[in-house]
Design a protein that fits this description.
The protein is of the alpha/beta class. It has a domain of about 240 residues: Rossmann fold, CATH 3.40.50.720. About 45% of the residues lie in helices and about 15% in strands. The chain has 14 helices and 13 strands. The strands form 4 sheets. It has a 7-stranded parallel sheet with strand order 3-2-1-4-5-6-11, with helices on both faces. The N and C termini lie far apart (about 45 Å). Bound molecules: nicotinamide-adenine-dinucleotide (NAD) and thymidine-5'-diphosphate.
């Protein structure tokens, strides 16, 4: 079996659902259920003996050690993190606690367990650390995309905390021999994405008749990957990635934010036209820019393709259509995640009118 951390969040839950759709290998899912974790996403696994959910913190050494001893997983796939840049600007404490201290404690618990395994299990064991392209910082408009050799230049409290966790993972391999692999992926989108991030926020706000808040000039570029393609990359790296290596994961889909928002509006105009016949694009509103906003991210995913034969399946056009359709088909999921905590966040970030 495998131990997944953060498997009630956006990417982790998609990973667990896809994993169990493809394999019978059981999953222990350790998640603290912060505001971003949602058991409703895992509803289809209720009563499924292949999935055991454990609510808890990756920094709880006794809990993690107990799970490792009881279940003897052959791998740990580490998604758990605080993941929203804007929240890290409002307050970075939780980011340091989970992404840095939590990852350190998880590594130590895993190392202690791993060091006692018989030699063959020790050699086969993997710790797969899921990270982000944001650790590389911001690119000039014409600069080549990030390769695995790009210097770490994190600019936000979020990316600095993820960079720190990447360094810890690297050190636990070099110093202690822990068999790690790290993936650094670009921006994901798809089903079960919490509507504080750009794409789900725009879909949800558009349908609610609310403004679509584009930061600054909206010409910041992100490189978008459909979440299921990220999950397939992680499975491939777990299966065949070389120990101690890092792999960049991306979809070759660089787009400025405002273009993403216009694409979402055009899809909604087609699939769920506004009653007054106007385009959802009339709801686009440019708001104050994010402090320290990185201008451009772009991933060079050639190493993953050349070494492990991985390629994304979705284009942005097919992936964004699936995503918009998913949100149209799942209004209850959206309504349930828009809890009191969500409304408080919207008020803090976008003002009282946006939260009404
Ligand atoms: P998310 O915020 O949707 O989910 C994070 C999950 O981790 C939640 O279920 C939360 O309850 C859980 N969690 C938080 N703190 C915890 C703790 N201390 N102990 C146990 N569980 C805890 O995040 P996501 O978008 O699914 O991202 C997953 C991972 O992928 C993160 O490490 C993130 O840095 C990385 N990543 C995300 C993206 C993206 O575009 N979303 C891109 C590249 C990499
Ligand atoms: P986000 O989804 O927060 O991901 P990240 O900051 O990790 O890349 O944001 C994606 C881009 O969209 C980023 O350039 C910030 C921008 N953005 C907006 O313009 N408006 C918004 O309301 C949000 C949440 C993001």
């Amino acid at each position: 079996m495998i131990l997944v951390t953060g498997g009630a969040g956006f990417i982790g839950a998609n990973f667990v659902l896809d994993w169990l759709a493809l394999h019978d290998e059981p999953v222990i899912n350790l998640d603290k259920l912060t505001y971003a974790g949602n058991l409703e996403t895992l509803d289809s696994l209720r009563g499924d003996a292949r999935h055991r959910f454990v609510q808890g913190d990756i920094g709880d050494t006794a809990l993690v050690a107990g799970l490792l001893t009881e279940h003897l997983p052959r791998a740990v796939v580490h998604f758990a993190a605080e993941s929203h840049v804007d929240r890290s600007i409002h307050g970075a404490e939780d980011f340091i606690q989970t992404n840095v201290v939590g990852t350190f404690r998880l590594l130590e618990a895993v190392r202690t367990h791993w060091s006692r395994l018989p030699d063959t299990d020790k050699a086969a064991f993997r710790f797969l650390h899921v990270s982000t392209d944001e650790v590389y910082g911001s690119l000039a408009p014409d600069a080549p995309a990030f390769t695995e050799k790009h210097a770490y230049e994190p600019n936000s409290p979020y990316s600095a905390s993820k960079a720190a966790s990447d360094h810890l993972v690297r050190a636990w391999h070099h110093t202690h021999g822990l068999p790690v692999v790290t993936t650094n992926c670009s921006n994901n989108y798809g089903p079960y994405h919490f509507p504080e991030k750009l794409i789900p926020l725009m879909i949800v706000n558009a349908l609610a008749g609310k403004p679509l808040p584009v930061y600054g000039d909206g010409m910041q570029v992100r490189d978008w990957l459909y979440v299921k393609d990220h999950c397939s990359a992680i499975r491939r790296v777990l299966e065949a990635g070389a120990v101690g290596e890092t792999y960049n994961v991306g979809g070759w889909n660089e787009k400025p934010n405002v273009e993403i928002v216009r694409t979402i509006c055009a899809l909604l105009d087609e699939l769920r036209p506004r009653a007054d016949g106007a385009s959802y694009a009339t709801q686009i509103t440019h708001v104050k820019d994010r402090p320290g906003h990185d201008r451009r991210y772009a991933i060079d995913a050639r190493k993953l393709e050349a070494d492990l034969g991985w390629k994304p399946v979705e284009t942005f056009e097919t992936g964004i259509r699936k995503t918009v359709l998913w949100y149209l088909d799942h209004p209850e999921w959206v309504a349930h995640v828009q809890s009191g905590e969500y409304r408080q966040w919207v008020k803090a970030q976008y003002g009282a009118a946006a939260a009404a």
